[in-house]
Amino acid sequence: MSDRIDRALKRVHRRELQNTTVEVFEPTETYTAGEGFSVAYPDVPDNRLDVRLSSPSATTDRDPGGTTGEIDAQISVPDDVDQEFTDMTDEQEAPVELRDTADGTRFEVESVTDPHNGLLRLDVTEVS
To answer: Between 2.40.10.240, 3.40.190.10, 2.40.10.370, 2.60.120.260, what CATH number should domain 2-127 receive?
Structure first.
């Protein structure tokens, strides 16, 4: 029964809930002795995804560190897309960047949450 619900939620998401398309830019990290790590993002996106972009909830959530997280938006994406999302909590990895194709706004993934409803929630901050 749970699989039927997951499939139904994904169908609804793909037909009704998505409101924009984002381009995904996966980082490349390099390490140079004496200089440390450097991160580069490609000029051409690695992937394009149809997603739901929304403002964060008005209620305050506490992040694992115990402080109130400040995010600019939340993005919902089906959990079965062929895309790995690195975030600010991944050690030794830079976060994935996303660009909203509607207005060109760039976002950096702060955290990825799996609420076990067929979708992943990406908390993102705007990159200038």
So the answer is: 2.40.10.370
- Greater confidence (42 vs 14) lies with 42
Full-prediction pTM beyond 0.85? no
Is there a contact between 19 and 55 (Cβ–Cβ < 8 Å)? Answer: no
Q: What is the dihedral of CA 115, 66, 56, 119, to 10 degrees?
A: -10
- Residue 10 belongs to what H/E stretch? helix 2-12
The domains of the chain are located at: 2-127
Question: At a CB cut-off of 8 Å and minimum separation 6, what does 68 contact?
Answer: 60, 61, 62
Strand partners, 122: 75, 112
Torsion angle (degrees, nearest 10) of CA 73, 79, 80, 85: 60
Contact 49, 77 (CB under 8 A): yes
Instruction: Identify the band that residue 66 occupies on the pLDDT scale cut at 50, 70 and 90.
Output: very low
- Give the per-residue pLDDT at 90: 61
